[in-house]
Amino acid sequence: MCxxxxxxxxxxxxxxxxxxxxxPEYQGDGFHRSKAFAAIERYLNENSSKQAKxxxxxxxxxxVIVLSMADHEEVTDEFQGIKLWWTSSRVTPNRQSIxxxxxxxxxxxxxxxxxxxxxxxxxxxYLKHVLExxxxxxxxxxxRKLYTNTLEPNKKEEITKDLIRFTEAKDYYAKxxxxxxxxxxxxxxxxxxxxxxxxxxxxxxxxxxxxxELTAVKDNTELRQLLIDTPKEEKGxxxxxxxxxxxxxxxxxxxxxxxxxLLNFIDGLxxxxxxxxxxxxxxxxxxxxDPALIRRGRMDKHIELSYCSFEAFKILAKNHLDLESxxxxxxIDNLLYETKMTPADVAENLMPKSTEEDEEACLVRLIxxxxxxxxxxxxxxxxxxxxxxxxxxxxxxxxxxxxxEKVKAEKEANGKEGVEITGxxxxxxxxxxxxxxxxxxxxxxxxxxx
Length: 450
Hints:
alpha/beta, 4-stranded antiparallel sheet
């Protein structure tokens, strides 16, 4: 039986000279969609879907409809004169239970078929070509938007253009001999959207985010290894405050990540490892940062995220309440001009707290919060003014007391000197009144000496 089975298998290999490669939609743990599958899907949609008799439509919005191959459809492709076949397949398991794994509910995959004599060309050149083309099509067709609720339109457009220009500047960076990386410094009070901005930037560019907490890094060597291990197309988010890094390095001998190590991480030899890379620093206190850390060339673009403006409020009102105008907007405009409130606090007040609340109730709650913040700020300003006035008065009293003490000391010193001078003058006057007596005294003293 064994010899017969071996012979049959060998005969089949001789009769069927084609090779099939399967590309499943999900691999590994079943939660992450295969990047290869996504790239192949985009490539086939662009180049081969016109051949398919059955298509499926993916509607992103009213204006964008993407057509792709339906399941169990076959199309042909050609590469360097070689004919290939792509098949789209889908298997639905016959089960009653509910699975948490996407691929258990609908197992999709592509099958590539080609003649075995073209194996080297297909595996070494064609598949690379398909993956690169698929990625390029994805970048070209995706809608590029910076999804952040609090950024003013002009600033949003400026940042969007800057990011896209960076991603398309590979040849330019190679031409000038500079590492393909860019640094962004986001600064502003807490709650102004710095972390949201990082997520929006990553969403725009389809980059992964690597959140690096320096306090958890043992030393410069581990920091370098982390940089090398992160893949290209990365966005590194430095969320720890870098203020006074140098000071902490001097005062705390146990710290292992040094300022010089951090600078090398940003733009030293380590930073040249890998492909394109964006590094983002966030801080609440930009004036405390070491100038060497944030100079141009390290942090190329500085973006201030401040308190909520009226333009940012209108974006939040549109997103949360679907309102573009209201009679209360004018009052809110005046209050935002007079009061400092973060976009996070504005958004929280605009969110309906129950099904009974309408748009006006949310706006009124925001106005009340702004009025309260205004009154609190006024009270704090008055208290601060009183404390400063008190401190000024105490300082003036202290200076005055010191001056009086100084004057008193000078008078006492002058009085003592006057007493000594008066004694000398008295002796001189005695000599003038009784010159003979003094002379006799001198003579007697002289005789006594002899």
